[in-house]
Each structure stands twice: as C-alpha cells, then as structure tokens.
Amino acid sequence: MSRQALWADSALRAAYVRQNWDEVFRRYRQLSGLSQQRLGELVGLTQGYVSNIERGRHHVTSTEVVARIVAGLEVPSEVGDAVQNRDLAEWAPGPELRERVAHAHTTGRTDLRTAERIQRVLAEHRRAEDEVGGQVLWPVVRAQLDAITNLIPGASGKAADTLLLLAAEHAHWLSWVAWEGGRGRLGAALSWADAAHGWAVDGGHQDMASWVLRLRSYYMLKGGDAPRALRTAEGARAVAGLSPAAASAVTHQTAVAAAAVGERDEARRLADEALRLALMVPEEADRPGWLYFLDSTRAQLQRAAVAYACRDWADAAAGFRDALPGLEGYPRDHAQYAARLVDAQRRV
Fold first, then answer.
1. I need a surface site. Which of 88, 89, 221, 284 has the fewest CB within 10 A?
2. How far apart are CA 85 and CA 70, in angstroms?
3. By the 8 A CB rule, do 171 and 195 touch?
4. Residue-by-residue DSSP string for 97-108
C-alpha cells in the first residue's frame, strides 16, 4: 500500500488534525507495518526520537520537524489544510464555495484522480464517524470539499456531474455533523443541506437530491414540526427515478413522519414498503455509497422503529430483539435501538 493510500484511514487523519504526533506515528506504523527505525528514516529522525514521541516523552513543536513528517509520510494536502481550520468558528458554508460550483460545466479538462481518492476517503469517514466522531473529522471533510470545488470550474460534462455529486455528498455530511452540534448550529446544518440539494440537482443525481430532502425532514421532525416533516418527506419520495435503496430510505422517513401526525395505518403500510425496497438490494455494491449501512439488519430495525412510533409495542419489541445482534459493530446505534427495545418491552 502506498504512503498516500494509508491516509484514507480516518483515525490517522483525526490524529493529524489534533496534532497528536504519538498517535500519528503509532497508527501510521500499525497501518504500514513499519518499524520505528524505518519510520524514522522516512521523516529524518532517529529511532530513539521516534520512540520518545510515541511514548509521550517528547512533544513535537518544531516547524522543521513537522515539515519532515509531512514530506516523509506524504500527508495529503487537504489533511494539512484541515489543521489550519480546526478552530473554525464559522460552521456554515461560505460564498466562495457556491461561486466555484457556479462555474461548473465550463470547458476544460480535470484530472479526476484526486476526486476519486477523496471519494474513497469520504466513505471511510462515514464508517468511522461512530468511533472517531464527526466533530474531530469536520475540518478534514471541509478541506476535502474545498479540494473538490476547486476542480469543478475546470470540468465539463460527465466529469462536472461526478464532481457535483461528490460535493453534494460532502455538504450532506457537513450538514449532519453541524446538526449534531446542537440547535445553535441548525441554521448552518440547513445551509449545508441547501447546498447539497442544489449541487445534486445541478448534477442530475436524483438519489442524493431525495436523500438531502429526507435529511431536512428528519431535522423538522426532531424539531417538533411533524406536519412540515411529512410534507418534505413526501416531496423527497416524489423525486422521479430513485434507486430501490434511496426509495427505501425516504419511504421510511415518510412512515415515521406519518406516525407522528397520527396517520398510523399509512405509516405501517409505508414501513412494509420501505422494508420490501431495502431487501431488493441486499448487496452494498448495489446501493449508493452513503446508504452503505442499509442492509437487511438496518431495514428490519427501521421497520421496528416505525412500529415503535405507531405504539405497536409488541411488534416493535420483537423487531428490535431479532435485529439488534446484527448491529454490534455500531456501538452508538446499538445503544439507541437497545434503549427502544427496553422501553417497548416495558410497555407491552
């Protein structure tokens, strides 16, 4: 594996953003299989110096040493840029992003290898968020988005459409992480969602356009505005040409919103439809990248969640109980569904 390929690892990127050099060295060596001696040769340090850094006995403060680490370990530019933004106070998208995207579909040629690499990295971040935390990865993903939007003005046709989808995926991720930061960041979350939806529509990506509307519906429902959440989910569901996985995700959201406004029979019908659609694409490769998680276990849990919302306690408890063992690799989500199981069992 090349040195740059190692930087797809979210834990390594997060350690670099925090400037935790002991973690950077240990994680890099774990991924690469290098000895302390060999890593020291790459960065121009002795084996003893590397050992002291890993043990926390020496703290890197010299800009010269940092420069050696960046060059020797081939730190990608967007990861280095992220360090400059780790104390970013402004969570909402700036106007410069929209300006760059506005010049899409011009003439020119763009090397898409950078975009393809960043696409793979974003997939790693999605999976690592449960363990590493979105707040830590925020500046990394924000810098990645800058790298993508800088490529767009030089692209045209299918290349521009590909970049617009990748920009929309990043903006969606940033919206979610901003929303998780609390109500004080809701405006920023909605701004990122608006940007993601616009870029998805511009690039002709129906699945992502629907998914972002589904996200807005989720925010509204959590904010207590169930009627508006239902209308938004229905709009997302009406997007033409959705893949089965994308249709399943938005149908589930519509079901939850329908239950919240008291339309329980419709919610149950939609829950069954969402499950049927999800089971049509059991293989991850057949689903959009951001729906990697929507396997049969998640589909069953989502159906149980609708039963819970409809106060069908016995059905909900049975669904949670049967599917929870398949969620062991996702501690945060497992805890959430386990709590619902306990509550549903109490109410039976």
1. 89
2. 17
3. yes
4. HHHHHHTTT-S-
Residues in the chain: 348
**Separation of alpha carbons 158 and 104, rounded Å:** 11
Give the residue from 166, 164, 188, 167 showing the smallest Cα distance to 176. 188
Q: Which long-range contacts (CB under 8 A, 24 or more apart) does 104-109 make?
A: 104/152, 104/153, 104/155, 104/160, 104/163, 104/164, 104/202, 104/203, 105/155, 105/156, 105/157, 105/160, 106/153, 106/154, 106/155, 106/156, 107/156, 108/153, 108/154, 108/155, 108/156, 109/154, 109/155
> Please, what sign has the CA dihedral across residues 322, 323, 326, 331?
negative
Let me know: does 210 contact 239? Beta carbons within 8 Å: yes
**Cα 31 vs. chain centroid, distance in angstroms?**
22
- Give the DSSP per-residue string, 136-159: HHHHHHHHHHHHHHHHGGG--HHH
3-class SS shares of the chain: helix, strand, coil, % to 5:
75, 0, 25
Q: Tokens 């402004």 sit at which residue?
A: 90
pTM exceeds 0.70: yes
Residue scoring higher pLDDT (306 or 103): 306
Q: How confident is the model at residue 239 (pLDDT cuts 50, 70, 90)?
A: very high
Q: Which domains does the chain have, with CATH numbers?
A: 3-75 (1.10.260.40), 77-188 (no CATH), 205-348 (1.25.40.10)
Among candidates 47, 2, 3, 25, which has minimal Cα distance to 11?
A: 25
Q: What is the pLDDT confidence band of residue 89, given thresholds at 50, 70 and 90?
A: very low
Let me know: does 128 contact 159? Beta carbons within 8 Å.
no
Tokens, residue 153: 């003005």
**Cβ 299 vs Cβ 274: under 8 Å:** yes
Would you say 76 and 12 are in contact if contact means Cβ atoms under 8 Å apart?
Answer: no
Spatial neighbors of 295 by CB under 8 A, at least 6 apart, are 278, 282, 284, 326
Select the more confidently predicted residue: 173 or 250. Answer: 250
